[in-house]
Amino acid sequence: MSLWSFLKGKLGMLVIHLFLLFFTGMLLSAMQLDGSTIFYILTLYTVALLAGLALEYLPKRSYYSRLHRHLDTLDQKYLLCELIGEPPFEEGKLWYDALKRSAKSMNDRISEYERASREYREYIETWVHEIKTPIASGKLLIENNPSALTASIGEEIDRIDQFVEQALYYSRSSNVEKDYLIKRASLKELVNSVIRRHAKALIAAHVSFDLQGLDCTVYTDVKWTDFMLGQILSNAVKYRREDCRISVTGEQGENGVSLKIRDNGTGIPAQDLSRVFEKGFTGQNGRSYAKSTGMGLYLCKKLCVKLGLGLSVCSEEGRFTEVELRFPKRELLE
């Protein structure tokens, strides 16, 4: 709180006091008091007025300065009341009480939403685990009754399985810190594991791979990274052209390891490239080539932020798309 802003708030009172000061001087002069006595009385009045203003201003300046410091450094602004305490001046106590009540109401509402969100997330996780049973049963029936029809049904069941997995990871993505373990992992094993898991779809799409420089060690959560790599490969297959080729290249750098996954698919239009990580954004390719949810890369970006990984995409329409996943050195994660 600046002195100028304080005095502006007291402008009306100051005008009245100046008028009283002038009126008192005129009255004392009319009473034929000598000049020195009038000056002494008016000076005493002015000093008393300034002292009163100072006694009011100094506690307010101290309190509001502390309030601004806490407000600038506090992430959760609604907790401000818990830090600043009650002000020492009366009018401040009124707004402090109102602020405290509104903060309590906000905290109650936040707790309510957090509880509802937690219950919904638990329901989704339970549903995913339950739906996995009929999916597994369906796959088993298809394996026991091979035919062109069951093979086609199997492809659709695999797609359902991928969407179910995406729903599970989306429900957990807001609380990654409660379910992750950073450990040493082989980049080659990570990539090969994802390729094996998606082997059926990759074979059906006649995808050929070029794997280079994967003899590197990275520090990451294997489960979450496996999911992200699966989403990237799924996109490469989804937006492929004939003679689909995917190159996977690992590069050891000063600050860590980068993994580049490049395909020769349809590419991403320039106007869509800056929005590929937005939630629900499907772009021109999503509308033209396949039914897309716009959640895959959004989830990947969200998980990378949580895990401290880097993720970027570059592309040229009609030629290629390259996704780069960057694993920092162990020291940078600690």
UniProtKB/TrEMBL annotation:
GO CC annotations on file: plasma membrane
Gene Ontology BP terms: cellular response to phosphate starvation
Keywords of this entry: Cell membrane, Kinase, Membrane, Phosphoprotein, Transferase, Transmembrane, Transmembrane helix, Two-component regulatory system
Catalytic activity field: ATP + protein L-histidine = ADP + protein N-phospho-L-histidine
Top-level lineage group: Bacteria
Pfam families listed in its UniProt record: HATPase_c
Cross-referenced InterPro entries: BphY/WalK/GraS-like (IPR050351), HATPase_C_sf (IPR036890), HATPase_dom (IPR003594), His_kinase_dom (IPR005467), HisK_dim/P_dom (IPR003661), HisK_dim/P_sf (IPR036097), Sig_transdc_His_kin-like_C (IPR004358)
Residue ranges annotated for the Histidine kinase domain, each copy included: 126-331
Enzyme class: transferase
Cross-referenced CDD domains: HisKA
Principal location listed in the UniProt entry: membrane
One Gene Ontology MF term: phosphoprotein phosphatase activity
Membrane-topology descriptor: Multi-pass membrane protein
The enzyme's E.C. designation: 2.7.13.3
Compartments reported by the entry: Cell membrane
Segments traversing the membrane: 12-31, 37-58
Keyword Transmembrane helix in record: yes
Name of the protein: histidine kinase
Species: [Clostridium] methylpentosum DSM 5476
